[in-house]
Design brief:
The structure is a homodimer of 460-residue chains. By secondary structure, chain A is α/β, with parallel strands linked by helices. Chain A folds into two domains: 270 residues, Zn peptidases (Aminopeptidase); 156 residues, Glucose Oxidase, domain 1 (3-Layer(bba) Sandwich). Chain A is 40% helix and 24% strand. Chain A has 14 helices and 16 strands. Chain A has an eight-stranded mixed beta sheet, with helices on both faces. In chain A, helix 2 packs across helix 9. At the A-B interface, helix 1 and helix 14 of A face helix 1 and helix 14 of B.
């Protein structure tokens, strides 16, 4: 009996010591991020000195070489590029659009959707049919749709607490709406910007046409313009109201680009990996500050913090700046492909691509309830003082997604910052450095470094 | 045995039904706030049509009558004013300041501290002594301090996760620094703005002199200017560096003003009260959007939501727009005094004065660990889907504070939104409507309505 008691006591004591040690390390991680953080200044340079960096653009290539140098300056064990061919879509001249209300022309803030085609050179004018879903287009059928501009106008559902869910709920209009409308003979598509904010910014983003389908011009208009158009359509009835837009975007041949990878090599298991990453490419309308400059700068910061604290991970920890998340996710595919090819063992991957806002926690993709209960039992208490302790089952991210099949057994994790402001700026010209808060950015980096430290020490 | 089992089963069933009913009601509260919310538009009017509203000012009186009309338009059971005499401090002409570096004059963003006195008409020039704490002033003593401008320059400690704690840690320099420096013969005081943000905004705020002490001119300078002055002081040494500032603020006689109170009268216990409130007055430099326009608009919104849902509280629920939180908290004192005078029974009071940011939870002042454990056991699960479930022991607020003594047994609660951005704009000209996010504001109102609903139904 005494022996057993001693054993239990020893185990408890050991557990307590471990807990105290982890707690101390996490405090050090936060202190380093908040006192000596480098992510904010790096983000300023990325946003202000490089700026928009759509896949295939000259700026994207500048961002690649700058990122490599940045990681090298941090002194990571390895820094290298992964070649990947990426699509090269260009917007061309600034778009114009207006509502034609009889003899009145009302200017409308507009932006071509990524991967869309141009209108005829003189622009495109047609009657408008307002719909609220893809199903409605299918129901209306060719007779109603042919020759018209289809106007997708289903707003965000404000009742979702996490705005990502509202985006998911409205997003099919942009992702697939144009392709479906084309099938029924539409000549063009305009989509209400995917944001809850009522403002004058068009929010772009990719739309997808299958190879055999017809590609028609598709653009996003601002939410205010969408409301105005909808009101006029109700007041005036067709055919008084027409819509005009002109865009000159085009697809160019694929371009060689790169993922940028930095690594701290594991002291015990160099061939086991924990990845943290975001995407280096951005839309062309702004600086890609929150989408996803913050994500890449946080990923590099995680490794920088470990270096600064002289923490040598047991497993290899990688920061990956993925290329081409926005219109193809070829970088994510390539990373998984190479991981498989090199027979790397992947423990976990964390994606940070929901903005550099105050961290709330992490979501673990496809894990069991038992798994998440254990994660909470073990680590929630450690993360609670930093208010980044919401550990739930949920989605992870586009770039790390392909690892699921290529590296079975991996745990995919999504970094979950506060979601309220993300879609106000998402894919619009408002996604600039000035809208990033230094502390929120740093807290995010610290929360990811803490989780990776725990995974590195204790496994998953 | 069967009887006992049946009893247990019934109790569980009843508990489950109650839980389901509460859960449903909270969902309705959030839906109403997010779909039909009025707080954002009301805040716009308060900020843009009225604007700054320092106690005693004409704008503060405009805000009082507008607020009363707003509450009346919402159809509350009672809407009335509580008379309260408030201090009337005025800033006068815009301040000027510069660092005198030999023959160079470097302009400095400056704002007089509230309740401070003017400099001589031609301004005040003196040698500067930089200190980092009140203790340092006391240690240096009269010989070092006399005739000088004392420059308090202790920055926020960035390691605090909640910025309110960093404010608390640096705040004594502004609150009491000038009075202490005056005791040792200082001719003026400048204080590093109480913000972690490195920018060009001076952040004002009240400073306090005791009645018998000497009142000397005191002002806040921007954090960037503070860094510059500190660097120059180190480089050049005294007496090459002097500081000049000029302000013409003054105290005028007290003015009659008002708290604005709206009430839904309790159907079962009309003389038992749950209060939710913020302060209607603001500093004069900006619109008082987050401090505390959001708080008052949320408080009214709580009652509006109940009305809209036809929820008739058992106890009386009051929204209180307190006057004069910023430089005297006479409104808070008056509310407590009248509550005692009318022998009202007060169950709980919630204060919302930390900005209209995404809610994280609530802190309960001075309660026991058992109490907070019970609150968590009962309600955390209900608030968890809305991510406003951090229920902790902590501070409440300045305006409801006096209720503690006047109405013993009351539970004081602080609304806790995300704290990261608050001190970036706090008491500066940057505290404007544009920096408030509609959803964050609405989620805060919904979280408070939910907690008040639970308190009304189940007590505390």
């Amino acid at each position: 009996m005494r022996k057993k008691m001693t054993l239990i006591f020893s185990v408890l004591l050991f557990a307590n010591q471990l807990y105290a040690q982890d707690s101390l390390m996490i405090r050090k991680i936060y202190d380093e991020a908040l006192v000596n953080g480098k992510s904010y200044e790096s983000l300023r340079v990325l946003c202000k000195n490089i700026g928009p960096r759509l896949s295939g653009s000259a700026n994207a290539e500048k961002a690649v070489s700058w990122s490599k140098k940045l990681m090298e300056s941090y002194g990571f064990d390895k820094v290298y590029l992964q070649e990947v061919m990426v699509p090269h879509w260009v917007r061309g001249a600034k778009e114009t659009a207006f509502i034609v209300d009889g003899k009145n022309r009302i200017a409308v803030p507009v932006a071509a959707l990524g991967m869309s085609v141009a209108t005829p050179e003189q622009g495109l004018t047609a009657n408008v049919i307002e719909v609220h879903s893809i199903q409605e287009v299918e129901k209306l059928g060719e007779q109603a749709i042919r020759g018209k501009i289809v106007f997708f106008n289903r707003p965000f559902d404000p009742r979702f607490i996490n705005t990502g869910q509202a985006y998911g709920g409205a997003g099919d209009q942009r992702f697939m709406g144009p392709a479906v409308a084309a099938k029924y003979g539409a000549v063009g598509v305009i989509v209400r910007s995917l944001t809850e904010s009522l403002d004058d910014y068009p929010h772009t983003g990719a739309t997808f046409f299958d190879q055999h389908g017809k590609n028609i011009p598709a653009a996003a208009i601002s939410t205010k313009a969408a409301n105005q158009l909808s009101t006029l359509l109700k007041m005036r009835k067709l055919p008084l109201i027409k819509f005009y837009f002109k865009q000159s975007c085009q697809m160019l041949p694929d371009v060689l680009s790169y993922n940028v990878v930095g690594e701290l090599t594991g002291t015990e298991h160099p061939n086991k990996f924990i990845t943290v990453g975001g995407h280096l490419d951005s839309w062309d309308l702004a600086e890609g500050a929150h989408d996803d400059g913050t994500g890449v700068m946080q990923s590099a910061e995680v490794l920088r913090i470990f270096k600064a604290l002289d923490y040598k991970p047991k497993n290899s920890v990688r920061a990956v700046f993925f290329m081409n998340e926005e219109n193809g996710h070829r970088g994510g595919d390539k990373y998984a492909e190479l991981a498989a090819q090199h027979q790397e063992e992947h423990i976990a991957a964390i994606e940070t691509d929901e903005g550099g806002f105050t961290p709330r926690g992490f979501s673990f993709e496809g894990v069991s309830k038992d798994f998440i209960r254990k994660v909470n039992d073990n680590w929630k208490g450690l993360l609670n003082p930093y208010e980044a302790d919401r550990l739930t089952i949920g989605e992870s991210g586009t770039d790390i997604g392909p690892l699921k099949d290529k590296r079975p057994g991996i745990i995919l994790i999504g970094f979950r910052p506060d979601s309220q402001r993300y879609f106000d700026i998402h894919h619009s010209s408002n996604d600039v450095f000035e809208n990033v808060n230094k502390r929120e950015l740093e807290l995010g980096a610290a929360s990811m470094a803490s989780l990776i430290y725990l995974i590195d020490q204790h496994g998953l």
